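hiii, so i know i said id send this last week but things got crazy w the move. better late than never?? heres the sequnce for the chain we talked about at the cafe, plus the structure i predicted for it. fair warning i was half asleep when i ran it
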Amino acid sequence: MPKSEARRWWALGALSLSVLVVALDLFVLTLALPTLSADLHASSSDLQWFVVAYSLVLAAALLPAGLLADRIGRKKILIGALALFGLSSLACAYSTSSGELIAARAVLGLAAAVILPISLAILPVMFTAEERPRAIAAVGGATFLGYPIGPILGGWLLDHFWWGSVFLINVPVVIIAIIAVVALMPESKGASAFRLDTAGIVISSAGLVLVTYGVIRAGDYGWSNAGAIAAMVAGVAVLAAFVAWERLATRRQSDGSPMLPLVDLGLFGSAGFTWGTVLSTLVSFALFGLVFAMPQYFLDVRGLDSLGAGLRMLPMIGGLAVGLGIGQRLQTPRKRKGVTGTGPGTGTAAGAPPVSPKLLVAAGFTIMAIALAVGTRTTIASGTGFAATWFAVTGLGLGLAMPTALNVALGALSAERSGSGSALITAMRQVGGTIGVAVLGTVLATAYRSRLDLAGLPAKAVTAIRDSVAGGVATAKASGSAGLLDTVRSSYVHGLDTMLWVCAAIAIVSALLGLAFLPRWKAQELEPAPETEPVPAEAR
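okay and structure toks below
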């Protein structure tokens, strides 16, 4: 392998580290909330804002971050974001009040809003259509690797050190990622001679924040909550205004305006971009509910510690790794000797891949649906082997569907605007994940409460039990009632099984959408295969 080619794959490792650190942070905080409540004297509202501050800033900053990366340079912006992520992790770890931690979490969300889209934006620039499936598999695998590693590391640290240690685990990973990005990654950017779409930034940020806040509030207080409904309706209205503004900005640009629209609405004219983004968002919708619900099953129903719960999530990563390997092979266009290049026989051409993307995505979602349906057989007494099996098969389907859908969407992006296009994909996936947690959490909570028999219990105990399974288990243990404990646990399992049926239904619908709307893979010409580095000029 030529040195320049090896350098690109090492740079991909740096990108993978960058997204891994964000994925780690996504899950470790939930484990530390009980300790934070005691040590920082945090109220229930404070605990909510520890999570919400991160999500809201992340939603607000995604689209502008992608545009700035296109203009300033993706490498420069990524290095700055990683440094900010490391510094804000330190600020989180050493916060002495709830206000300080909320502020530090907001800055952490800002840094993550830059890291996530750039990790995708650089792929169409650095890698050819033939190489991109492997690159997406690496970045996607790193993202999902953080899901079990976060609880495992976080649980171990909380068992041995103070709560701030769960944020300090970010720092060494960030340092390694910065060194790797500086040393290995080429700079790339789009056209620099344009004026920022300031109005678009403000309008889109407001709309995404309102929708995200409304969904989070609905998840906490119910979908009939007036504040949640008002925020979501206002958010949708603002986003509609944003679309209208971007259409106007696009027309003005065609008339010679120097302002570049924040979002290229023309991307939605591509079936690959539109449906690749929609389907990768549906993966986030279904998966986030699963990832947040199953740890509670292991912790509260099975009575395991945080480390044990995290370890039992690992089979999904094993299945994911297998799915990613199979998927990238089945997506890779087959080389054939052709007449491309500067002379006869000097290049190669790529035909269609062995399996059409629409078939691969549909197969992945179908496998996920079957595994999730099997998961609905989960009971209080289910063994670890049962959970490991359907977790692994779910991961296998995920590894086939998720990177394939992303590859189809990324294939529609030009090198000029890969940052803003990737930010749009990331924004939709982020909002989809947030909605998934809220909707599926509501499904689980409603089914859980429907099975509870709390007649004769004090009002305070009833409230604690209905609020969460953790509160229910704690209350039952404090009362010494084995019957109440069994009722709480069996009710949660009923809620979990109901939620998994919904997840399976989402996967089936996604499979049908993929078959109906994803385009067939068109044969693509690859660039000639000379000895020089096969990276576009703007990436060098």
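btw The chain is about 75% helix and 0% strand. thought thatd interest u
miss u guys!!
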